[in-house]
Amino acid sequence: MMICKTNEQVEMMRQSALLVSKTLTEVAKHLKPGITTLSIDRMIGEYIKDHHAVPSFLNYHGYPYNSCISVNDVVVHGFPGDNELREGDIVSVDVGVILNGWHGDHAYTFAIGDPGPEVMQLILVTKQSLYKGIEKAIAGNRVGDIAFAIQEHTEKKHGYGVVRELVGHGLGKNLHEDPQVPNYGKRGSGPKLKEGLVLAIEPMINMGKKDVYTESDGWTVRTMDGKPSVHFEHDVCVRKSKADILSDYSPIEKAEAANANLFTAKIFQPLS
Questions:
Q1: Is the peptide bond before 179 cis (omega within 30 degrees of 0)?
Q2: Which of 61, 129, 166, 202 has the fewest CB atoms within 10 Å, measured from its CB?
Q3: What is the pLDDT of residues 104-139, one digit of tens each?
Q4: Are 235 and 171 in contact (CB under 8 A)?
C-alpha cells in the first residue's frame, strides 16, 4: 500500500533527508587516498548520533554498519572495512537516518583522484539519469515513466548496464515502503503516482553488463564482469507540476569541489 504524506510530514522528511545530505557533505570533506572505509563509517555514525538521529541501516535485517560504502565494482551494500581507498577508486556512500521517526535515505558516488574518462562518463551519465527520472515524478504519471527515463538515458543512449535486481522505493516511517521504483521499464506502466508520495529514486548503473551477484556475506552486491558501477540517490516528493527534491546535493558538490583529492565533473541538473 502506497502511503502519501501530508505537507507537515513531508517537511519532517525533508529534515531527515537534509541530515543525510549534511552527513555526505562531511564524507566529501574527508575522503582521500589511504583512508579506510571503516573509518568513514564510524565518522558517519558519530555525525548522525551527534545530530540526535539514528542510522537507518544499522541492524536493519541484521546489517552490521552505519552506512553502505561500495567501491569500484561493488554496486551497493558494501561492507565498510580496513581496506584503504586508493587513487583512481570510485566509492558510493549510501546513508540513511531516522530523525523524529522519519527516514532519510540517499547516496552519492565520489571519485578518489582521476579514475579516467570512461569512469567519469559513467558517473556523469548516472547522475544525469537520476534527474531524468525525477522529472517524471509528478502526480498522474506512473512508476514506469520514471523507470523508462532512467533506462533510456543510461542503457539505450549510452549502452550501460541497468541493474534489474535492485530498485528504488517508497520512503516514510519505514525505510522501504511501496512502491518499488525500478530503473528500467515501460512508459505508462506500474502504479500511478499521487501527490505526497515520497520516493527514493536511485539509479544503479554498470559500466559493462547488467548482471550482478551477491557475495557470501549476504549483502555485498558486485558486477558479474568486475567492471565499475555507479549509484546516485535522491529523496523526492511527488507533486502536481514539478517534483520536490527533499535531499540536497549542492553542499556535497561544494565540499567535493573543495577537496583536492576528489575528481569532479560538472553536470547540468534540470531541477536544481
A1: yes
A2: 61
A3: 999 999 999 999 999 999 999 999 999 999 999 999
A4: yes
Can you tell me whether residue 79 is helix, strand or coil? coil
Cell of 258: 573543495
The distance of Cα 191 from the centroid of its chain, to the nearest Å, equals 22
Provide the 3-class DSSP secondary structure of residue 88: coil
Q: How confident is the model at residue 268 (pLDDT cuts 50, 70, 90)?
A: very low
Domain ranges (residues) in the chain: 7-263
Instruction: Dig out the grid coordinates for 262 from the structure.
Output: 576528489
User: What angle, 0 to 180 degrees and rounded to 10, lies between the N-to-C axes of helices 7-30 and 250-258?
Assistant: 10
DSSP E strand boundaries for 36-183: 54-55, 67-71, 74-76, 90-99, 102-112, 161-162, 168-170, 177-181
The pTM of the whole model exceeds 0.70: yes
Rounded Cα–Cα distance for residues 177 and 132 (Å): 22
- Beta strand segments in the chain, E: 54-55, 67-71, 74-76, 90-99, 102-112, 161-162, 168-170, 177-181, 198-201, 204-206, 212-214, 221-223, 229-231, 234-237, 244-245, 262-263
For residue 149, what pLDDT is reported?
98
Q: Which amino acid is at 23?
A: T
Domain 7-263 coded CATH 3.90.79.10: no
The residue among 249, 235, 14, 214 whose CA lies nearest residue 108 is: 249
- With 0-12 / 13-18 / 19 or more C-beta atoms within 10 angstroms meaning exposed / middle / buried, residue 8 is exposed
Measure the CA–CA gap between 250 and 256, rounded to whole angstroms: 10
Longest dimension (CA), the chain: 48
C-alpha cell at 66: 552505519
